[in-house]
Structure formats: C-alpha cells, structure tokens
Amino acid sequence: PENSGGTGYNRNLGIENSTKEYIGFVDADDYIDHDFYERLYDHAKIFNADVVMGETQIIDGDNNEIYKEHLYSLKTEYSLKKIFSYLEEGVCWDKIYRTSLIKDDKTLRFPENTFHEDNFFILKVMSKCNKLVSVPGSFYYWIRNQNSVCFNQNYADKRIKDANLVLNLVFDYMKKNNLSKEETGIILNFMINKFGWMAIKDTRFKGQLTKKILKYTI
Fold first, then answer.
1. What is the C-alpha to C-alpha distance for residues 100 and 46, in angstroms, rounded to an integer?
2. CA gap 134, 94 in Å, rounded
3. Alpha carbon of 208 to those of 7, 47, 150: distances in Å?
4. I need a surface site. Which of 63, 131, 163, 218 has the fewest CB within 10 A?
5. pTM attached to this predicted model
6. What is the 8-class DSSP label of residue 41?
7. How far is the C-alpha of 116 from the C-alpha of 110, rounded, in Å?
8. Which helix (H) or strand (E) holds 143?
9. Which CA distances in Å does 198 have to 15, 55, 113, 161, 162?
C-alpha cells in the first residue's frame, strides 16, 4: 500500500519489524560515524542502558561546514530531570533504544503524517527510561538543508498546526499518567525550549503556546 504516513509511519514500520536487541533511526539525508552504532551498542551492554545517546554535529548543507554541535558528558544513569536537561533537541536519531522498551508498549509509537513527531516519542520513551548513557566523540551528522521540508516556508502553517497537535498529545499524556508537579514542570520546560523558536518567529503560535501552557498549569 502507498505510504501516506510520512517519517512517523516508516519509523513505526521499522519498530514493528525489528528483531535485534537495540534499534536506531537515521534520516535519509544524514550520515553517521562508521562505528557510531558499534560504540553506542558497546556502552549499552556495559551499562545495561535502555537508551544510549551519541553526539551531534549539525552540518550546513550549503557549504558543508559545522553549524552547531551538541556535545554531552553524561556517562551514567540520571534522574528524569537530568535526562531531560540533556536533551537539547527532541530528536530520535542520535540514539539507540532497547527494542523491548519500545516494541512491548504499543503506545510508544510516532505520530504519523505529522511534523515534530520526534518530540512526543522522545517524551514517552524518556519517561520510561531507567538508564541513559552518552558516548562522547561518537557523532551523528545532521544535514541542515534550508530547502528541506523542515525549513520550507510553504509548510509554515502545517508546522504550527502539527506543533499544536503534538502539544495536545503531550498534555493528554501528562494528565493520564498523573505525573508529579516536578515531572510536569520538567516536561513543560522541555516543550517550551523545543517550540520556543516557533513562538519567536510567529505571533500566532506564541499566543497558542502561551494559552495551552497557562490552561494546563493554572
């Protein structure tokens, strides 16, 4: 059948068909160090970790130069607060995950045909993660292409619409799981950091984001 669910659909298909102990995701236009997964897997086994995170170099696709780096020093298990404090980007692709953690819980899937699908997935996975470790010097290379769908202004309205959809999913998730005040604050702060750039660029979304957060916290 024709794939109409976008990146989320393809990742979910990969989860359903995975047979190995750990699973990872790579976007089509990105690349990784030749030993990226080998090093992450070695650390997963050493520390018996649910999630292992590499580092990221964001590459400007126009001149092939490093635009930004996400470097970490996280080496052992941390609390939920610490885990979320290290997630500069709510992305799935710079990590590997214990397959059973995701596959056995049918709620741990990506929203389909939606921008920002990583954010909701990461929130749920990290909330269930008992141990996260990082591997300094193992790089995922994210190609930042200004002509990609992520930055194309023709998709600005859909990005805002989908951001609201993801925020609603996040709030519903927090309510259903009776999170503590501290956990709620951590996740709200994470979402504000993730979507803050949209609020700065678009006053429509700023108002929507503020309204949703105030409605949830008051």
1. 18
2. 10
3. 25, 42, 20
4. 218
5. 0.82
6. H
7. 10
8. strand 132-144
9. 30, 24, 19, 11, 12
CB atoms inside a 10 Å sphere around CB 195:
23
Per-residue confidence (pLDDT) for residue 9, from 0 to 100: 92
Contact 120, 170 (CB under 8 A): yes
Q: Which residues of 52-82 are buried (b: 16+ CB within 10 A; e: fewer)?
A: bbbbbbbbebeeeeeeeebebebeebbebee
For residue 118, the number of C-alpha atoms closer than 13 Å in the C-beta half-sphere is: 17
Nearest to 130 by CA among 77, 172, 178: 77
CA distance 58 to 68: 5
Question: pLDDT category, 1, cuts 50, 70, 90?
Answer: very low
131: nearest Cα among 86, 77, 82: 77
Reported confidence tier of residue 185, pLDDT bands at 50, 70, 90: confident
Tokens representing 131 are 């141990």
Q: Is 172:217 a contact under the CB 8 Å cutoff?
A: no
Q: What is the pLDDT of residues 12-57, one digit of tens each?
A: 999 999 999 999 999 888 999 999 999 999 999 999 999 998 989 9
Which SS3 state, helix, strand or coil, does residue 31 take? strand
